[in-house]
Amino acid sequence: MTMNALLLALFLAAGCTPHPVQGPLDRDGDGTPAKSDCDDADADVHPGADEHCDGRDEDCDGEVDEDAIDPVDWYEDGDGDGYGDKFLVTTCGDRPPCSYTFPPTCSDEGGDCKDRHADVYPGAPEVCDGLDNDCDGAVDEDLPLTAWYPDEDGDGYGDATSAPTYACVGDSGSVADGTDPDDSNGSVYPGAVEICDGLDNDGDGGIDEDLPDAWYPDGDSDGYGDGDAVPKSGCEGGPGPDGHALVADGTDCDDADAAVHPGAVETCDGVDQDCDGVVDNPESVVTNWYEDLDGDGWGTHPTESGVCPQPADTAPRGHDCDDAHASANPGQEEPCEDTDLVDNNCDGTVDPHCTYGTVDAWWWYGLQDETPTLDCWRNYDAVMVENGSGCPDCEYTWTVALTLTTPPCSGSERSSLTLGLDQDTSRVWLSTYAGSAYADATYSDTTVSFSQSWLEFGDHYSLYYSYWTASFEFP
Question: Residue 102 pLDDT more than 60?
Fold first, then answer.
């Protein structure tokens, strides 16, 4: 027996068990020694581990969540439907501040094919609106179709002789009822009132049927015929004597005055307006008279009641805002060139500076800190319709009504803006729904024009810039 074998036998006989050789300490068993592991209690944390978006330094490089394998892509959600379009940033953790949009909205869901419509996003229900609501590349698919017929005469009934167009929604000028026998005449359609005109108005196959036998000329076109005239027997269509229309009611007591007929309003003027045989009967004449000192037919406050004939210096109606000027009452026009310092039409505005001209607007689209790109251009006809407000330094401020003269483009069209003139600094103040800005201007006693007025603003889906030019001429 060798010496080593002898020693081993003696060692075992003494009841001793050999211990394995000890290696480096690794408590979490991730294969990295504790002295090299930044968290030896977590097997997912060690040098070389994958970094996740969890707020921990898993790869022990001193940085948290860098180059994570599960980051979140964030998109600009301009319409707030929970789905974005334009990619913004890839981050870990909570959503970014989303300062790119107004209002600040972003989403971790992309794929929005029309981020200006909240009812358009992946998986949205398809509705009949001409849009691809569910972003599957098809418009108004799988919806019930309706037959649409052209309605050329605008009577609500489509041409019965035209082939229909099938769609979920009809084009302008089309209707779903295609039973009009004559789509060139608005008085002919199913259920129309039959009149004496030689046509089958109600579309039942009969012409001028079931109409009265006696027809009277209506010389004043008030719907009531001359009761003293010899009636025309039967309905043959066409005009009566002297070219006047024929009507079935022959109870007009004065067929030369359209204000005189049964049921007309009786006024205090010595005429029997309502054809009841009584002139100026107290039950129907004007009962209130208003003081009218300027004689324009409009008074200020009631002075007499139940009196006929009309008292002196009175009028049958009130609401005169200036009873010292006959040119001022609710029935007057306020001409733009008028400078009489009188509120002629009683609308609360004295001598508005009505000017005429054009307004051009260029709309530029871009995110913050980016060079904007041209989105569209608009041209408007403009008229200053009334006094405006909002510019504390302006000598004159107007509300300008806009009428679009170019085809509409993206965004909402403007219908008005506010324009102010600051003569001290030779500037024009421009205000729209989005904000206000000053622009250098040139003006004289008859004209005003400006350009280079930038407005920077955010709307419901992105940041916009607008650039305005305008030229107005005083009449």
Answer: no
Beta strands in 176-284 (DSSP E): 214-218, 232-233, 245-247
* Number of domains forming the structure of the chain: 1
Alpha carbon 349 to its chain centroid, in Å, reads 27
Q: For residue 401, what pLDDT band results from cuts at 50, 70 and 90?
A: confident
Q: Is residue 434 part of a domain?
A: yes
Write the burial class of residue 166 (CB in 10 Å: 0-12 exposed, 13-18 middle, 19+ buried): exposed
Query: If pLDDT is split at 50, 70 and 90, which confidence band does 353 have?
Result: low
CA-based nearest residue to 454, from 432, 425, 421, 471: 432
Contact by Cβ (8 Å): 226, 255: yes
Rounded Cα distance between 47 and 224, Å, is: 103
Calculate what percentage of the chain has a pLDDT beyond 90.
Answer: 17
pLDDT for residue 444 is more than 70 = no
The CA distances from residue 30 to 61, 111, 112, 131, in Å, are 17, 40, 43, 55
* Beta-sheet pairing, 356-365 with 373-387: antiparallel
**pLDDT above 70: residue 210:** yes
Rounded Cα distance, 184 and 48, in Å: 83
Phi-psi region of 36 (alpha: psi -120 to 50; beta: other; left: phi over 0): alpha
Q: Is 72 exposed, middle or buried (0-12, 13-18, 19+ CB in 10 A)?
A: middle
What is the domain extent for residue 387? 356-473
Tell me how far the alpha carbon of residue 217 is from its chain's centroid. Answer: 48
Q: Is residue 407 part of a domain?
A: yes
- Tokens coding 320: 């005169």
Residue 374 pLDDT exceeds 90: no
Q: Do the domain assignments include residue 369? A: yes
If you average pLDDT over residues 317-328, what whole number do you get? 90
Instruction: Please provide the DSSP assignment of 435-459 as one string.
Output: EEEEEEEEE-SSEEEEEEEEEEEE-
Q: How far apart are the first and last CA of the chain?
A: 133
Give domain status of residue 340, yes or no. Answer: no
> Which helix H or strand E contains 205, and what residues bound it?
none
Beta strand residue intervals within 64-120, DSSP E = 72-76, 86-91, 106-107
**Tokens for 158?**
């489509």
Evaluate if residue 436 carries a pLDDT over 60.
yes
The side-by-side arrangement of strands in the sheet containing 86-91 is: 86-91, 72-76, 106-107
The amino acid at 72 = V
